[in-house]
Design goal:
By secondary structure, this protein is of the alpha/beta class. The chain has helices at residues 38-41, 62-65, 77-81, 84-90, 125-133, 138-141; strands at 13-14, 29-32, 46-49, 57-58, 71-75, 96-99, 116-122, 145-151. The protein has six helices and eight strands; from the N terminus they run ββαββαβααββααβ. Strands 1-8-7-6-5-2-3-4 form an eight-stranded mixed sheet.
C-alpha cells in the first residue's frame, strides 16, 4: 500500500541489492532474511532468520552480529513486521540496504540510516496483480517489472 503512492525517482540503477559492489567489504556482511541464491551472491554472509535454516542464525543473534558489521542487508519484510527500527538502531555506522519488492522506493528513508533501497518497479500492473491474486510470490511476478537500486550517494 505504501509503494502504491510513491513514484520511483528517475535516478535509479538496475540491481537487486544482494550483489556485492566490493569483492571484500570491510567487515562481515550480515543479511536479515533468507533470499534465493544467497549462497552464490553472498557466500560468506551471516544470515539471520526468524525460522532459521541449517546455515542461518536465529534472529536473536542480531544483537551480537550487527554492531560492527561491514554491511547490513535487511529484508523489506522487517518494515512490515515491526523489527526495522530495532535493526537500524543496532546498525549505527554500518552501511544499510533495504532489500525486496516491498521496499518503499523513497529517498526519505535515507534520513533513517538506510543508504540503499533495492526494490521493484512494476511495468505491468495487471499481470502482477493477477500473479499475486493467484497465490504467486516474487518469482511469479518478477518478469513483469524491474529490480532497481536507489542509493543515497
Amino acid at each position: 500500500a505504501v509503494n502504491a503512492g510513491i513514484a520511483p525517482p528517475v535516478d535509479m540503477q538496475s540491481g537487486d541489492g544482494l550483489q556485492s559492489e566490493k569483492s571484500n567489504p570491510d567487515g562481515t556482511t550480515v543479511i536479515v532474511g533468507r533470499f534465493p541464491a544467497l549462497q552464490t551472491k553472498r557466500p560468506d554472509a551471516i544470515v539471520l532468520e526468524m525460522s532459521p535454516g541449517p546455515n542461518d542464525l536465529p534472529a536473536q543473534a542480531a544483537l551480537h552480529v550487527i554492531p560492527g558489521a561491514g554491511e547490513l542487508l535487511i529484508t523489506a519484510s522487517a518494515w512490515c513486521n515491526g523489527t526495522l527500527p530495532c535493526l537500524l538502531r543496532l546498525a549505527q555506522n554500518v552501511p544499510v540496504t533495504l532489500v525486496g519488492p516491498g521496499t518503499p522506493l523513497t529517498p526519505t528513508l535515507h534520513a533513517y540510516g538506510i543508504g540503499k533501497l533495492a526494490g521493484f518497479k512494476i511495468r505491468d500492473r495487471d499481470a502482477v496483480r493477477s500473479a499475486i491474486a493467484n497465490g504467486g510470490g516474487v518469482e511469479s511476478f518478477k518478469e513483469f517489472g524491474d529490480q532497481i537500486l536507489l542509493s543515497a550517494e
